[in-house]
Amino acid sequence: MKNVTDSFVSLGHWPYAGSFGFNTDILATNPINLSVVLGVLIFFGKGVLSDLLDNRKQRILNTIRNSEELREGAIEQLEKARARLRKVEIEADQFRVNGYSEIERERLNLINSTYKTLEQLENYKNEIIHFEQQRASNQVRQRVFQQALQGALGTLNSCLNSELHLRTIGANIGILGAMKGITD
Q1: Any further remarks (predicted)?
Q2: Which residues contact 11 (CB under 8 A, 6 or more apart)?
């Protein structure tokens, strides 16, 4: 106890300015004051600090919870997107296979229709050639007939008199009449 009273007695004793040394006086160095201030801060600040930490903890937990929910939602969307992708890839493969087979089918149809068209054109060409040959033959026959007829008429006109000429015309009209009666 003597030490404690000595410390109160020596409160008025301060070291001189400019001196260097350790101050062993407890009251002069304020450890009690500091411990009281720290105790008050801890006592009253503990609730505020605890509330701040609890609020921060709740915000962190809420952020983590929201992040987990977003992550789960993103995973679900990713799985849906992957399923859609697989479905689209399967459909694309089917379209590709069907497209190739459709292209091959169309190619064969085009080749077949081209052959048919070529055959029709060949037949049409042959018909035109045959028609032109017949027409040329008919024209040649008509010319030959006309020339023969003109030659015959020239010969008859030079050899025949008008009486013989009238009898030949009458005989020919009779032959034509008889032919007409047979065809009717």
Answers
A1: In plastids the F-type ATPase is also known as CF(1)CF(0).
A2: 25, 27, 28
**Residues 85, 122: Cα–Cα separation, whole Å:** 53
Secondary structure of residue 12 in the 3-state scheme: helix
* Single pTM value for the model: 0.36
Cβ atoms of 27 and 8 within 8 Å: the answer is: yes
Alpha-carbon separation of residue 158 from 146, 150, 152 (angstroms):
18, 12, 10
List CB contacts of 7: < 8 A, sequence separation 6 or more.
25, 26, 27
Are 25 and 7 in contact, with CB atoms under 8 Å apart? yes
Q: Determine contact, residues 28/11, Cβ cutoff 8 Å.
A: yes
Q: Which tens digits make up the pLDDT trace of 26-67?
A: 666 677 777 878 888 888 877 887 888 889 999 999 999 999
The pLDDT of residue 9 = 46
Q: How many helices, marked H, and strands, marked E, lie in the chain?
A: 3, 0
C-alpha to C-alpha distance for 2 and 8, rounded to whole angstroms: 10
In whole angstroms, how far apart are CA 102 and each of 26, 98, 110?
102, 6, 12
CA 137 and chain centroid, separation: 64
Q: How many CB atoms lie within 10 A of CB 165?
A: 13
